[in-house]
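New to this. Explain the following:
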Amino acid sequence: MENKLNILDRLLVISEKYKLVTVFKSLFILLLIVGTFAFIKNPTYVFEKYNEWNNKQHQEQIERRITNNAETQLILEKLMYRTDADRVMLLEFHNSGKNNSGLPFAKITCTYECLNDSIYPIANEYQNIQLSLFPFTNLLLKQKYYFGDTEKLLEVDKHLYYKFKSNNINHFACCVIEGIDDALGALLVGYEDISEIHNCRDINNLIINESLRLSLLLEINKFNK
């Protein structure tokens, strides 16, 4: 213990004698001057290095996004087969445009859709949909999960009821995808024929579990933008 104190005392004496802090400050200023001089003398080199670094970062973001997209699609496909669903849709919340008060419009867009055999795609009908037109959204955000017949929507949300009916979605389950700060979107599993549903409890657990996995992927994509 005494030896350690002696070493510390010596370091303090040397620091005081040679003013190491001042030395370090001088070295930092010198490096700053040299760097500035190098930039003035050859600015092209600096910009080229920055562009190389920026392009590399951009390429890595693209690769991560492609990987996450493939993983997201795989999650939806597995969920569709495990729940015997006709379709599975991933809908993401976003803002687009502003009203006269400067507030952004809250919207939702279907970014992924998996289809069973002989089921026609409808993802293009669910692009930039204004949430204020669909009261069911508020109910879903409060309950976090919904599982039931589309007929029940008639009491809550006529817009969504007729929309689903036109798409032949007669029974569905929907789960909010929670993010770190707020809701990121919703995971929807749809059925045309209610007889296809075998075990509601299993479907509930599957959808909730997969929504957690999707939340992680969506958060990563959000930070990679």
User: Anything to note?
Assistant: The longest helix spans residues 43-82.
